[in-house]
Amino acid sequence: MGNKLKNFGLITLGLVAGVAASLQFSAMAQKTATPLPIEELRQLADVFGLIKSDYVEPVDDSKLISEAISGMVASLDPHSVYLDKKAFKELQETTQGKFVGLGIEVGMEDGFVKIISPIEDSPADKAGVKAGDLITRLDSLSVKGMTLDEAVKHMRGEPDTKVTLTIARKNVDKPIILTITRALIKTQSVKGKMIEPGYAWLRVSQFQEPSLDDLVKKINALYAQDPHIKGLVLDLRNNPGGLVPSAIGISAIFLPKDVTVVTTNGQIPESKANYTASREFYSTRNGPDALAKLPEAIKNVPMVVLVNTGSASASEIVSGALQDYKRAVIMGTQTFGKGSVQTIRQISADTGVKLTTARYYTPNGRSIQAKGITPDLNVEETAENDGINSLRLREADLQKHLDNDKDSTAGTEKRDEAADEKHALEIEKTLKPLEYGSATDFQLMQALNHLKGLPVQLAKVADKADAESKDDAKSDKKSDKKSDEKTDNKTKAPAATPAIPDASIPATKK
């Protein structure tokens, strides 16, 4: 889009989404694999000394070093980041599915903080914050000129304290002022219900530590309600990812035991791994296997998995595995395309580095990086085929994103940003908030149609392109019968809703 999210570093206030499979982090290796670049390190020391001696005012040593580390790690790719004390603590809280904050996902756009999405039932959601809002002031401070990190730190705080947001909203002339109370937010990542007799809907909004157990409980509850479920919809739309063990466990619910769910490959030996639908990869706890409590019918019930451009990372692991084994029909729009794994390396008692250590691959060896999962059935979010997904940010749009090592053409699509921006503005005026699992949820209704063997309303993009091609051909024929030109109608690859794309595995102890 024209106003592409610059300095993309999507952060949930109080929430840094799933970046570790456990909290058993390893310390950094004391030895380096290659000799240190002495000359470059000397230059770094010289600059450090110059700042200490000549800068206009004193600068704390720890601040300089922390910022140097942060800049070095951030220069690698969009998902590697240095975790200071506060970020490291928040990471630990997040994997448990709880955090203190306002409950909004944010990014930077044109110098302002843009609301990507309010978290369901959070203080921000209840206060009326909407996706697409721009925060222009925090209390009495102008956001213009702040970094995303500075803005986020100001919005964080203790429970029951307040912060006032001044918001600019499209099609609203006056600023909107909202005072929101910070709170401890416990996120419920699993929802489910019987849509109608015989057909169940399960939604996983993020892969957290409790997600597997919560999904097992929900499945058992639904089967107790209706023992003869004929079809199931697994909803992963706008699921930004999370913990790899959780994704493996949820995949294992529906797949045969011990089959490959995902493989990873990187520079170090521990990053070259094959993760299977086995307990050792989705649970480290003693006691009975959570999956042993499931009804046997769950392995064979017809399935549809719903995805969109906000489905990223661990969501793509699950949908990719179920697609490769033909266990489920994937329906929706092209996913985000984050095919890399981050590992948490602890570098002190309360700081660490979230480092991209591997790419991941589906069981058939497909790389998702900068490409995403292509649905079996391309169904847009609304019956009118609004096309909003083709205008949203994806992994391939992020600066310094990793290339797809299996497909050199992935992520190379050219986008007309001005046209995208104009089209997006037109669409957003008519869009209504999506209520997952409701009778107005168009994609869910199409999933039910497929499970029942009824017609599914597919996206009209291809049909429209064909029609345009025919019209152009007729026009050429009339103007010049000898003309043999054919129009080249290319359908844009859908792009993703900005999310908190992340999938992580624990670092191997050294």
From TrEMBL:
Record-level Gene Ontology MF annotations: endopeptidase activity; serine-type peptidase activity
Any Gene Ontology biological process: signal transduction
Ranges of compositional bias, category Low complexity: 492-510
Signal peptide stretch: 1-29
Gene Ontology cellular component terms for the protein in this record: outer membrane-bounded periplasmic space
InterPro entries documented for this protein: ClpP/crotonase-like_dom_sf, CtpA/B_N, PDZ, PDZ_6, PDZ_sf, Peptidase_S41A, Tail-specific_protease
SUPFAM superfamilies documented for this protein: ClpP/crotonase, PDZ domain-like
Residue intervals of the PDZ domain: 88-156
Keyword Protease: yes
Key words of the record: Hydrolase, Protease, Serine protease, Signal
Compositionally biased residues, Basic and acidic residues: 461-491
The family this protein is said to belong to: Belongs to the peptidase S41A family.
Protein name (database record): Prc: C-terminal processing peptidase
Source organism of the structure: Solimicrobium silvestre
Species lineage: Bacteria, Pseudomonadati, Pseudomonadota, Betaproteobacteria, Burkholderiales
